[in-house]
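2024-03-11 09:14:02 INFO worker-7 job=invfold-0412 stage=load source=structure_tokens
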């Protein structure tokens, strides 16, 4: 089986990124749903692991939480886009190249990675650089 119906893909993304119910299939967790999707940076493709796989390690790096609401993410058909630029902490040491971004459930640790994709162009990080993902960064579920 290959491919996903674009309407259902959009519904699935809206559930994950906007906490929107999919009628007759799924509701947002009612007792303690996650309130943010955590964005991470990676030096290599993390998709076969967890959100900690190949994760950025420059000094002062931390994942960034983005609200699971329409104020944090715009979902349209089968694509999701951050509403605002996602800025990571400025590097205070270390040098590395971030080539992937990940989206997951937790602020730290080897936790569930929802999605990951290549960053183009890559981000060269060194002292004083503030890595950012812009509002033109997209995730398309196909």
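2024-03-11 09:14:09 INFO worker-7 stage=emit residues=142
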């Amino acid at each position: 089986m290959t491919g996903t119906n674009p309407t259902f893909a959009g519904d699935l993304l809206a559930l994950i990124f906007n906490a929107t119910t999919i009628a007759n299939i799924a509701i947002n967790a009612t007792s303690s749903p996650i309130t943010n999707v955590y964005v991470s940076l990676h030096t290599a493709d993390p998709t076969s692991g967890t959100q900690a796989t190949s994760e950025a390690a420059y000094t002062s790096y931390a994942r960034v939480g983005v609200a699971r609401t329409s104020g944090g993410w715009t979902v349209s058909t089968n694509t999701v886009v951050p509403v605002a630029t996602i800025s990571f902490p400025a590097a205070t040491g270390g040098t590395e190249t971030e080539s992937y971004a990940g989206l997951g459930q937790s602020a730290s640790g080897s936790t569930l990675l929802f999605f990951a994709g290549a960053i183009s162009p890559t981000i060269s990080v060194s002292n004083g650089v503030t890595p950012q993902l812009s509002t033109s960064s997209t995730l398309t579920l196909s």
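2024-03-11 09:14:09 INFO worker-7 stage=report msg="The CA atoms of residues 72 and 78 lie 16 Å apart."
2024-03-11 09:14:10 INFO worker-7 job finished
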